[in-house]
Amino acid sequence: MDGDIIVFQKDDPENGNSELPTEKEYFRDLCADVIFCDKTIPNDLGFVVTLSNKMNYLHIAKTVAQRPNTDPMLLQFFKSQGYRDGPDNLLRHNYEGTLRELLQFFKPRQPKKLYYQHLKMKITDCENSQFREEEITLYPDKHGCVWDLSEECKKSVELGEKAAGKLRLLEIVSYKIICVHQEDELLECLSLAMKEIPLDQMDTDKENEMLVTVAHFHKEVFRTFGIPFFLRIHQGDLLDIQEKEYEKFKFAIVMMGRHQYINEDEYEVNLKDFEPPPSNMSHPWPWLGLDHVNKAPKRSHYNDLEKTIKIPKETHNLIN
């Protein structure tokens, strides 16, 4: 049945004490106009979708996917940064909250914005990492250093038999390892990951060996996902990766946003390939990329050697 719906409100003095004093504010509270911007397009104006505040992740994905006419499982969503315009943390497909909970930190008149990107594989495969994540809450001394955090973390996790019994603290941005924090550094980082150190990575020959960072991506190097890790390489050797699941990967050396594919059966390690240009030593170091050809690999022995202890944001607030 077509037609207009006219809504009126009884004049009641007690309405002023309500959180939603007018019928206009009441109906606005039921739905939200959300701007969805393409994460891969700078300054994308995006498109507006009216969504119910009670929608869960799957309902949101199905509704938004109608605009670009794509499969909702091929969309990946990101939260919006609160302090500036831009994408923030990844919104995982198993998010159990509602849209209202997702937008609760936006101010009443602030434009509500989320980000998305198109994937070449299903979101379930994209987020299926070869490493296990273990999320814990820690309460270290806020005036302490990385060593204090490491010792506190050891009390809450079971270290592997094949590991060195030590942990290292990594700074991870966009699913890539940016740096390793030393034990005497103060706890001032924002994006942290504590990892168990395998025995074969404790002592390296600095002249002929190197620990190179490895990250997962699909097609384009800026589409990283999963949990990054370290790989020990030796000058002149072939890449020491012999597991079957890596047959589904293409290997690439990534430097300054550009990647060059290599054949792991023929490529002989040259440590200089993983060093920054001499003219710009302050630039991020090159890294080894695993381009997922089909889907995420099966579990590997790295799963046992490098268990990740994910430190939630609540911990960051405690130690800052």
Automatic annotation (TrEMBL):
Pfam families: USP7_C2, USP7_ICP0_bdg. InterPro entries: USP7_ICP0-binding_dom, USP_C. It catalyses: Thiol-dependent hydrolysis of ester, thioester, amide, peptide and isopeptide bonds formed by the C-terminal Gly of ubiquitin (a 76-residue protein attached to proteins as an intracellular targeting signal). GO terms for biological process: proteolysis. It comes from the Eukaryota. It is an enzyme of class 3 (hydrolase). Its EC number is 3.4.19.12. Keywords: Hydrolase, Protease, Thiol protease, Ubl conjugation pathway. The keyword Ligase does not apply. Residues 1-103 form the Ubiquitin carboxyl-terminal hydrolase 7 ICP0-binding domain. Residues 117-297 form the Ubiquitin carboxyl-terminal hydrolase C-terminal domain. GO terms for molecular function: cysteine-type deubiquitinase activity. Belongs to the peptidase C19 family. This is ubiquitinyl hydrolase 1. It comes from Rhinopithecus bieti.
